[in-house]
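Follow-up to my post from last week.
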Amino acid sequence: MSITSFNPPVRTLMGPGPSDVHPRVTGAMARPCIGHLDPAFVGMMDEVKLLLQYAFKTQNQLTIPVSAPGSAGMETTFQNLLERGDKAIVCQNGVFGGRMKEVVERCGATPIMVEDDWGKPVDPQKVEDALKANPDAKLVAVVHAETSTGARSDVAAIGAIAHAHDALLLVDAVTSLGGSELRVDEWGIDAIYSGTQKCLSCTPGISPVSFSERAVAVITGRKSKVQSWFLDTNLVMGYWGPNAKRAYHHTAPVNALYALHESLVMLQEEGLENAWQRHLDNHLALRAGLEAMGLSFVVEEAWRLPQLNSVTVPEGIDEAAVRARLLSEFNLEIGAGLGALAGKVWRIGLMGHSSRAENIFLCLSSLEAVLGEMGAPIETGVALAAAQARLSGD
Amino acid sequence: MSITSFNPPVRTLMGPGPSDVHPRVTGAMARPCIGHLDPAFVGMMDEVKLLLQYAFKTQNQLTIPVSAPGSAGMETTFQNLLERGDKAIVCQNGVFGGRMKEVVERCGATPIMVEDDWGKPVDPQKVEDALKANPDAKLVAVVHAETSTGARSDVAAIGAIAHAHDALLLVDAVTSLGGSELRVDEWGIDAIYSGTQKCLSCTPGISPVSFSERAVAVITGRKSKVQSWFLDTNLVMGYWGPNAKRAYHHTAPVNALYALHESLVMLQEEGLENAWQRHLDNHLALRAGLEAMGLSFVVEEAWRLPQLNSVTVPEGIDEAAVRARLLSEFNLEIGAGLGALAGKVWRIGLMGHSSRAENIFLCLSSLEAVLGEMGAPIETGVALAAAQARLSGD
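User reply:
Got it. Predicted complex:
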């Protein structure tokens, strides 16, 4: 065996994440490692907390980066809030609602499922019905931006219903944070988790989470210990709490946190609302091009996520072959469908640093070239102009 | 709020980890991010698996990097092997045996504790007694290299006893992997976890783990699901198994895995046994200098870890003040004592890229300077020559 250094190909990442990472972020990641208890590192972590509060639009004290990917963030929220025997209402309209169900069951709690079709938003009326039928439900869990379909759900409306029934609101914001409107305090979100590799333009591996005071009271008042020592926020608060001693809990992923810090500094420089607007503007340009080509969207306009565009594969086209050619000929990655949508759709991400004009042009021109050669029933020669018209604000 | 880019101070890391990260590793980490399902990334992950098998000296198929720090690796091994109601023998001779106890309890299992003094190795006779008293114990868990004290334990001997009683052997190798003799297959280790930020010279954040075939049979034969969806190796095997479809489980921390790959390539270039020998040689040089100065070691020679040197603080000296001065005046980090040894010892790491002559000289000279100014009862002017004599092989 003789294995040498790995030099990755240079890709343009327009799948469901990871998205393109800005060189400022990878540059920050490569800075010299220091100790996780070094005063300089502790100071940086205080800044990460402030920046995450900014990105989440929250004053929550317990706003921290979990030292693992988004699915560990999901487990952090459920495992800390649920005890064995609890009931949780779980809304499912895609893959990630299904993962929530799995996690609830593994907490020894009972999931009450509220199901909607893939590609549709969660129906608040069904949530209300479920709460009426289960007045002892401890929380309602909903995916804000379903990465598997590209559909947004009305978290604020669902939150109001949950609170009217004395239930907590738990939200998956993996794909929404930094990319579309999200207001943790205003919307009454009690627990939320996200990922770094989507609209924050950062590398994958860290999960920002935040808990409201109401949620913290539930966590500190638990009768049983949290199942995971690693994810127990009662222990993590020894490091992060307002009067904490910065006690050692686990060794933080120092360089990954440099990267997150830098990506959040960039978000602050751009301005959160400006970032939301950029994602929307670029979505409209991509959409204009795709529709000019004759492709259609899976999700209806009102619930479409600007950062994740699910597009129906034209009839008779082998969608995997298209993705393989885009990757090998143009170094362009777009995403496949998942679960119920596997084989039927492409998921085109315009997230974070990937959400820019040059990516839209690359995607439209290479997709047109490949689909054209494969004999797909598309309109050629019109997509770029349509996108450009939109980008110019015509 | 206006927060700017973070530029860390440049430290020399001689605490209990993270250790100095080689620039080749941070350089690899800064390479462009690609998708976690990209064929190029999947190929790199195959190499990571081969390289981890090399570092662990194992043929275990289920040898993988867990996408989170060492404490998540610990939970991965316990949560996959234990079910509610199981019994586990847990050896404790420092902080990390105590953490194992916590994790076992949170699995709903019962820990049977085998305790030894901090700084001493685990006594195999006590393990045998515990197994005789608890013939239904499912596993024996032991820390190979106690990072909190610097003591090594005889994992091979404990493994033989465990197997004679039909129990699995679970080992914490966070501080030993790559730094001192460790033979997973030869020693009969059934489950093992480590960290990247110690003797592998990599950044913190990933935990290499490995399971024997016997352990995999226990995992696949479970009656209940693993508590954590994120850490469930039954699911992870869909990505890593020999005939796996590379199914999406979670988004891998791509750039952190570039770094691990590079650090393992460097280990292979040096040669594993050569790396063990380097850690030993440098330990002997540091020891010669410290002893010439009049400082003494906590752990007796036979059980001393070369990569983690626990040294008794001279009487009348404020150990925290010494560390603060080393950090502020010389950018040198050494570690404090933990738990029962807090305030009484320093932990000086010579791990991975930190294990080199220039670090030994910096440590001895700056410690001598600071202790001298603080009026400690030490011998001055002799440490460097003693270390140098040892380095020259005299």
